[in-house]
Queue: 2 jobs
Job 1
Amino acid sequence: MADDILPLSSAFADATEAEWLAAVDKALKGKGIDSITRTTADGLKVHPLYRESDFPSATDPLGTPGAAPYLRGATAAPDAWLPWDIRQAFTHPDPATTNAEILRDLERGVSSIELTLDPAGENGVQVLGLADLQTVLDGVDATIATIALDPVDEPGFIAAGLLSTWAEGAADLAALKFAFNLDPLGALARTGTLAASLDDTFASLADTLSRLSPFTSASLIRIDARMVHEAGGSDAQELGALIASAVDTLRRLPEADLAALAPRITFSLALDANYGLGVAKLRAARRLWARCLELLDVTPAPMRIQATTSARMLARYDAWTNMLRCTTAAFAGAVGGADVVTVRPFNSSLGTPEELGRRIARNTQIIAMEESQLGRVADPTGGAWFTETFADDLAKAAWEEFQNIEREGGYADSLLSGAFQSRVAATRDARAKDIAKRKVPITGVSEFPLLDEIAAPTADAATPKPAPKAPAAVLTCTPLAPIQLAAPFEALRDAAAAAKKAPAIFLATLGPVAEHSGRADFARNLFAAGGLESKEPPVVPKSVPELVAAFKASGCQIAVLCGSDTRYPDEAEAAAAALKAAGVRHLWLAGKFEAPGIDSNIFMGCDVLHTLTLAHATLGVRG
């Protein structure tokens, strides 16, 4: 820059923080900056402003990327060609179809594959023996692309045995890139069962680890806490379970060389569409694991993290919006330093994804990597005041959850007693109330629903072969069953779609368009979340008789008054009486004005799910 060219900022006077806060207070009409502070499911505050006083970034307290204890990631120089592993999950039940999908996706940019194996063929690839696995992996070069296992209903011993048998005859077992992902406690949490006692299960784990010793490049154990997230848990609960599961697993392997085993553990977390909190969660995980290794007196090792986009955030209605959700979560994984990222196909909420769903999933990562260049910088959020401060807050909350689990005897005992599941259920239920009131909106479902949407495609799934009978469970607990955040609203949409007559509500507008349009749009959007079409007068009514005539012509049985606060006192009561006399079975008013004849009100913050359920019941729509 030439000496006579000054930066644009030089034209403005320096502003103090006090002046900035005063401007914020004015914009918020005196409510103060605390009024826009948000609180997470863990009770942590997300402030609108962070400063150097919140996190002393200038002193670089976390060290540098690639330096022990690896709080800022495993490397200071990301791989120029593959800064993170693009892993695709495969769930089609037919082994031959899965093989074709694997070969196609590897040719088109996927760098590793994850096989979701389900003997029943209901939630993954139906592999009943070595022949099926050979069909699935025909043509796959495991020295180039990692083969990862994701058993649906067992700790991974059977799947690991099949994969190791498949590899027999390879010239160099050490060169094979496998991720066996053995996880007994994850299986207990996910399914609520184990086929053996804890002592016998971990004896089997130790024996399996010994038999897999020739695979020196393989990842052996996976500590998976995604089921906590998918069951409705909070970030701190997911992280607390992650660390508790790791500690309990290592504690039950007394003969294991922890220093040798620690680098061969993969940790799995879920990421949703809140990328700021997602980045902080990955950073908090590294801090927690580094602290555990310190307490275990184990040499610091980088924490290998697999981030998977959340299943609970995906919607069945307007499923195309899932692309945005998954893109945001993938961004968090890339920026947060995940070593492996798996993006769920946007249409996986509808059934088995087909080529379009998998193509978008892999291209989301490829674009982020190749075009957005997200992997070019090591630890890009390092030192950011919000990210570092919130990561610290989250790590402390997760450590408290970890200590709770330890006081309950460790992760296995806490699961078997149901104590941990109870805390997750409390968090899930509290979030459900916020979803019902749209404090947590779901775009395309509870907000801005499309009644005439174009359905997303899914694959045709072959009929599975008869599955072998599962072994009897020796240990049982309440499983951390997955939920869908949108499920209550989508159940109403399902019921409305199945009704013999499409349910509808009449928008009884008061006054000119300029006065009623805002609330009419609000009402239209709200009732559409339950699958109700909104019918309006063909022309703006100029009198109550015209309004009543329009209602009768609509064929509706329920209605909502939409007008301005200044008009309601003069016209709402008379309009309500006339509409009730004309046959309105239930009358809402958009706003908080109350008058005789008005049965209910809708407004920002009302219980939308209750309102829609009431509307369905009034119309006789049955779920």
Job 2
Amino acid sequence: MKSKRYFNTTGFCMPERHYMIDPLRNQKIIFDLIEKTQYFTIHAPRQTGKTTLLHELAHRLNKEGNYISVVFSVESAGYRSITEEIANKKIINSLYSSSGQYLNKKNCPIPPEKYTKDLTLENYLIDWAISQTKPIVLLLDEIDSLYDDVLVSVLRQLRNGFQIRPKRFPSTVALVGLRDVREYKTKVRPSEVSLGSGSPFNIKAESILLGTFTKEEITELYSQHTKDTGQIFLKEVVDRIYELTGGQPWLVNAIAREIVVKILNEDFTKKITLDHVESAKENIIQRRDTHLDSLIDKLKEERVKNIVSAIINGDGVLFDNYDDSLLYCRDLGIISETKPIRIANEIYREIIPRVLNRNLQDSIEEEGETKWYIKPNGKLDMDKLLKAFQAFYRENSEMWLEKFDYKEAGPHLLLMAFLQRVINGGGKIHREMAVGTGRTDLLIEFNGERFVLELKIKRLPSAKQKGLDQISRYLDTLGMTKGYLILFEVKPSSVVTWETRVKWETLSHQNKEITIVEM
């Protein structure tokens, strides 16, 4: 029997059609702010449930009957060349057309074409509020799509009305977008007249960042599918999906949908296994659905590039505007909210290096049908693979590093591209990357064996000794006694010749067998 509901990966969720968690489950703060007639902002990365929350909030407020509430998008005014006058009209038209979805006719604002006064958003909202007996809760979506004068104009009009709320202006206004209000300043030209405060929306009482799903919430979401179909997501499956997604709502739904619909073809009698989870992850990464494409677009921005490069290398960060860049990447959902600063989840950690070194991956051709790095018994010959990479790096690195957009992280990305063949051969690479660690750790699984590689940039003579101590500690955490320390020289070959920099030695360090691979 087909389920009436399904896992949604496009648009906002509706309880009658989709499996969903109550978006207002942890949002007592929103109702408190509305009760206190406050203005606030809500921000979260794309496809984390903002629009679902707004629709649910507006419908709930209208149903309870103490307020009238409308959600509307200002995106129609979100381009640079638009004038303030045209922008006001577009925003007002969006508000009016959306109001019919939430309110009966007597609670809707007047049609814009019948409005006889100067058609500004401020005037329109004043007259609407005066005409109503209940306070208005206005939810403006995509606020950060606005630019320059238009953004300033909208914020200023809302701030003017704040003084005369709730009888003559909306009682509560929530501005909703990808980024926090501090980011709005970066979208206003430096020559623009100041709004008179450090923040362009200094009347806001709170800034609310929507979080990701907890493991318990993923369990609750998946149990709805079990209730409808009888098909169970076992605890070990939920645990692995949580590891892969970090609770990112779109990914949580996308993995489940990929398993249930694409892999198992909606045969609810089939058991969901860990192998299905891994296949779903790989399919989503290979397909690069819209969500992942929008993430990848952000990698081109300088602020994102600085942070992601530092994470891949394990570098400390000293550049200007570090805090702003960090908050920006956090708002976009690219990095974790907790320290150490790392890529937000395992799927992002997998796809970001693949995207950054994709051209190199495509250019590395396999020589014939025989996989030269596989032993006769089917096991991985890691020594052979890394010696081949040393030769490849000596011959090609200077050309390839020059081409990389992420030059600082280039050596690490080159090795990850070279090792991609391990994944293509059915293995797995687990990446541990975080700002300030001074290294990147790779755990490679292949045909029942595990290999530890620690990647380190050799900026100082002490790098080798530090690397030995670091990989020894990492091996301890894994209960392993053998690993590889990969050291990349950063001085050009004109200063340190290839003859002196390419080295291979195996030694004992803190009761571990460490192979040091230098290049």
